[in-house]
Amino acid sequence: MVDPRTSVINARLIRTSRIIAVSSGKGGVGKSMVATALALALARSGCRVGLFDLDFTGPSTHIILGAQKVALKEEKGIVPPAVHGLEYMSLVYFVGDNPAPLRGADVSNALIELLSVTQWGALDFLVIDMPPGIGDAVLDLLRLVKRIEFLIVTTPSMLAFETVKKQVELLCELKTPIIGIVENMKMDKSESVELGTRKLGLRYLGAIPFDPHVEDAIGKETKLMSTAVGKGLQEIAKKFILSGKSEL
Amino acid sequence: MHEWALAEAILTSATEVAVKENMKEVTEVTIRVGELQQVERPILRFAISQMKTPLFKSTKFHFLTAKSSFRCRVCGTTWHFDSKSMDKETAEAIHFVPEVAHSYIKCPKCGSPDFEIASGRGVWLESVKGAK
Questions:
Q1: Which CATH number fits domain B3-131: 3.30.2320.80, 3.40.50.720, 3.40.50.300, 2.60.40.420?
Q2: Count: domains in chain A
Q3: Residue B123: which of A5, A74, A106 has the nearest Cβ?
Q4: Of A22, A133, A178, B13, whose CB is crowded by the most CB atoms within 10 A?
């Protein structure tokens, strides 16, 4: 018996030039904020961008964007609604404010279902907000989606960076391209993450200073892009993503 | 899953099987659809008829339904899916992404959302028969 759904996943993404999974070894490092700001930064530079929230059990990009509940348009699948110039898809369109208590196999099935029904347009970039860690969603994406690249987010904490090392090891073993590592919420001048990143043979994409105004900018796209996160991601997009390919 | 997206997936998968087995023509395709998918069979048939390639010119498409059953991981109760007991919006959300059932359905005995979809989930291409 064959699961026919997986046969159309790459066809759904054929008009997307680059697929960037924004990922982290552990939660709480600001990954969703970075993913959203990256998508908005790329869109502001004139690119056609999609944002896909795959953090099913803890989705938050819709809150960061201030996305409203809309009736989904159907056209041989589901057309992602436009939110601040992005093509946007999240499980929240199906579960609303209800929790989604999914176990591993359910995460895999929901991911396959959403990948196979979402009709993305012609995109320069599809940014994916991943769940933290190296669990089912990461393994499924690596199995099902060709041409995926990773951008990894950490904080200056040794605890966060230690989990990043494991993630990098896995991705390198699987020969998955890594754009580099972003150090988020930096509060001092320590160079330990930068040095650790170089030791891993990866690019250090930059440090985003901790900005207390970010909380006030949640749900306000223009304000978000004027915070340290917004400005930092515009710089990173310009320097490392719009200019070329990944390093590994 | 959306019927048109499903039709495309079925035809793509069946084509892959046919090419692998050097079939010149596909005569019969059997698909098992989980009840939880709530697929509208006439729409699926129509979508297949509109999207099919010459390889499927005279193919008979057979659809089987797998009845859904849930099993509570907390108290072990088993029960069946009943779309009639829910509002249209909820039923539609489950139609598109069946796993969101976990956001709307609870164990009728203990109220836990931690249940297993024991059967009636997914879509499976059971067999592809053809002439070489």
A1: 3.30.2320.80
A2: 1
A3: A5
A4: A22
